[in-house]
Amino acid sequence: MSDLTGATRQSPAPSTPARARRGRPQSQWWTVWVFLMPALLLFLYFKFIPMFAGIEMSFQQVRPFLGNLWVGWDNYARVVTDPRFHSAISNTILLGVGQSVGAVLGGLLLALLLEGPSRVLWFIRTAAFLPVVTATAVVGEIWRIIFFPAPNGFLNSVIGLFGMGPLRYLEDPAIAIYSVMAVGIWQNAPYYMVIFLAGLAGVDRSLYEAAAIDGAKLRHRLLYVTLPALRPAMMIVMVLAAVRCLRVFTDVWVLTGGGPAGATEVWMTRIYSLGFERNQIGLAAAASILLLITSVVLTMLAVYLTRARRVK
Amino acid sequence: MKYTTTMPRAIAPLTLIAALLCGSAAVAQDRLEVWSRSGPQAAATYQAVFDAFTAKTGIQVEYLATVEFETQLRARAASRDLPDVLIYDQSSMAGYANEGMILPVDRAALVGADDLSDASWDSVRMANGDYYGVPFSQHAQVTFVRRDWREALGFDVPTTHEELIALATAFATGDPDGNGVNGDTYGMAVPGTTDRGFFAWWLSSYMMQRGGSFVEGAEGKYTVTVNSVESVAAVEWIQSLFCGTPSLVQPGALTNASATPFFAEGHAGIYQTGPYAIANFDNAPGADKYEIIIAPAGPGGASTLTERTSIYLGATSTMPDAQKALAEFLISPEGQEIGMTAPGQPVVRLPVNTTLDGAAIYGDDRWRVVEAQLADSQLMPSDIDFTAARLEIAEGFQAMFAQCAPVGPALDNLALAISDALADQDALQ
């Protein structure tokens, strides 16, 4: 640092104001840290310290007033051998994969339908995006009304027109998870739509024209022009979906609370129930740490796969 | 030179944040912090009680009403800074006491303690004989029936389970609301949510009436009876309400957080719940439209669940005298009466203070029914932490009724789960 300032001072022609402005931040390396510090402090206090406390608690029987007891790997052993966690994990995977695939496909379809500069489309796109910005608790209540299981319930009247019998969407253990999945798809698809729309806007128009001149039909253009051009957007969406699907909680919680008969119990609802209903904070912490590890591994895997493809 | 002036400016936000993070601890406490699990209506009543307390003693009260009571309390427990006084369900006492979050109460030193019945004091006694709460409010679950519907269909007030089923079936299949459509109303409103194990409370009354039970015992030692012959028969009867044809409960009962709207908005005609619902139901469907009756009797009798609210003293409090003063005021005739009559919703449903006549204070004979039902009611185990067992019961029953499968094997599994929950705290006989 001293060299640098020395050099500027020794330079025969005194630096222009513009150069001086450019030079100063480089000379004060700690400026960067000072500007980062507020965010880092907040992260430290609200994220990293609680996270390490969580790791510590996962090895303890947590008793705020009597002092925590060290139980070693006991919590982890109980979580890993708990059959309800096994079913929660398989529900998480089923729900996550179903919601992700459904929402990505739905988002793509919406984007293809709603692409273009027209004002009407702009309005419809805004309307389609509404589920994303609506609070999940509100969405849950609306869907509880739509799913009302009486024959004169909203959705049951609709499917009744096609001669299908009334369904108990959220109460029948066999179909409750698919009802939750449908709500998740409805809520997430517009989010992915926006990413796809951005991707579509970047597609070179001349490629379409060239394809049209070559006599390509709509499906050919879609397969050989649009989809390959969307690959970067697709990757972002896939990574987002994979990471999001593990922490599904709010929609399940407001729709079914994990019931009926544990049919929609997922990883996060089980953690919530253990920690806040049964007050077994240590067990809940262990389950959370396992979730964290899984999320990190999945994210690294997704990033690795994306990179591997880019290198190719 | 310019830097020497700008850098402190950049650091200023940091100092501010540091001050925000560390600064709050030093303020000395001069107000008694009191929490209750209440919605806005009940909170208004509590506020009136505390205002009277402050006027009388000069002790300021900082009151927080929250419906996320447990979650918020856990957060405060983690920081070892609890409210000074907690007013909450009796069912939570044992858990808090086991964790050292609340202090034992010296019954003999409490002014007015003798005005409370022994039954009240028994409810706040832990298995080791110590009292960990002060009784504040009591009631039993009662049965709400749409009188106008019942009369429209020509039924008498049901006094037995057979008559209850007949009435519920008529509500579910007939046209009690007179809108010309048969079967668009439901028999019973049921709160089947497993949140906080809520379903177990509703179930326990019907279990008792059918001669069944979840556990039996006393003094901190219990036997699991949920899969006994009597209990299996009881559960089969309750299951038939959900799984029979027609189903006698409202659709979606098992995932409903609250069944109250179904009764209030005229969708269901029978609802077993606490008398705290009276204030709501007087608004809708209207006081003239419904009646409160003693539970129709089954083979096991007409008992229902006793529900109690108690006062707990937070263990981290630095104001023990003020804690005691508030508890004494809350059980005094004056405190109890304000808790019943102040605008809002009664937070003292029936007074624990035996010198008071609840129904006379309300000037409402429907509370005589609640009093009569209270005399024939039972508390869930409250000298042990029954929370985990209650959650298992709620979740187990919800599964049985959602699947409509034979209950025997499911009850055996549930019995094992309850046994584990009790064994965890050495409460298994």
UniProtKB/TrEMBL annotation, chain A:
<feature type="compositionally biased region" description="Polar residues">
    <location>
        <begin position="1"/>
        <end position="13"/>
    </location>
</feature>
<feature type="domain" description="ABC transmembrane type-1">
    <location>
        <begin position="89"/>
        <end position="302"/>
    </location>
</feature>
<keyword id="KW-0472">Membrane</keyword>
<dbReference type="Pfam" id="PF00528">
    <property type="entry name" value="BPD_transp_1"/>
</dbReference>
<dbReference type="GO" id="GO:0005886">
    <property type="term" value="C:plasma membrane"/>
</dbReference>
<keyword id="KW-0813">Transport</keyword>
<dbReference type="InterPro" id="IPR035906">
    <property type="entry name" value="MetI-like_sf"/>
</dbReference>
<dbReference type="InterPro" id="IPR000515">
    <property type="entry name" value="MetI-like"/>
</dbReference>
<feature type="transmembrane region" description="Helical">
    <location>
        <begin position="281"/>
        <end position="305"/>
    </location>
</feature>
<keyword id="KW-1133">Transmembrane helix</keyword>
<feature type="transmembrane region" description="Helical">
    <location>
        <begin position="175"/>
        <end position="201"/>
    </location>
</feature>
<keyword id="KW-0812">Transmembrane</keyword>
<dbReference type="GO" id="GO:0055085">
    <property type="term" value="P:transmembrane transport"/>
</dbReference>
<comment type="similarity">
    <text>Belongs to the binding-protein-dependent transport system permease family.</text>
</comment>
<feature type="transmembrane region" description="Helical">
    <location>
        <begin position="93"/>
        <end position="114"/>
    </location>
</feature>
<feature type="transmembrane region" description="Helical">
    <location>
        <begin position="120"/>
        <end position="139"/>
    </location>
</feature>
<feature type="transmembrane region" description="Helical">
    <location>
        <begin position="222"/>
        <end position="243"/>
    </location>
</feature>
<protein>
    <submittedName>
        <fullName>Putative sugar ABC transporter, permease component</fullName>
    </submittedName>
</protein>
<feature type="transmembrane region" description="Helical">
    <location>
        <begin position="29"/>
        <end position="48"/>
    </location>
</feature>
<feature type="region of interest" description="Disordered">
    <location>
        <begin position="1"/>
        <end position="22"/>
    </location>
</feature>
<dbReference type="InterPro" id="IPR051393">
    <property type="entry name" value="ABC_transporter_permease"/>
</dbReference>
<keyword id="KW-1003">Cell membrane</keyword>
From TrEMBL, chain B:
<dbReference type="GO" id="GO:0042597">
    <property type="term" value="C:periplasmic space"/>
</dbReference>
<dbReference type="InterPro" id="IPR006059">
    <property type="entry name" value="SBP"/>
</dbReference>
<dbReference type="Pfam" id="PF01547">
    <property type="entry name" value="SBP_bac_1"/>
</dbReference>
<keyword id="KW-0472">Membrane</keyword>
<feature type="signal peptide">
    <location>
        <begin position="1"/>
        <end position="28"/>
    </location>
</feature>
<keyword id="KW-0564">Palmitate</keyword>
<dbReference type="InterPro" id="IPR050490">
    <property type="entry name" value="Bact_solute-bd_prot1"/>
</dbReference>
<keyword id="KW-0732">Signal</keyword>
<protein>
    <submittedName>
        <fullName>Carbohydrate ABC transporter substrate-binding protein, CUT1 family protein</fullName>
    </submittedName>
</protein>
<comment type="similarity">
    <text>Belongs to the bacterial solute-binding protein 1 family.</text>
</comment>
<keyword id="KW-1003">Cell membrane</keyword>
<keyword id="KW-0449">Lipoprotein</keyword>
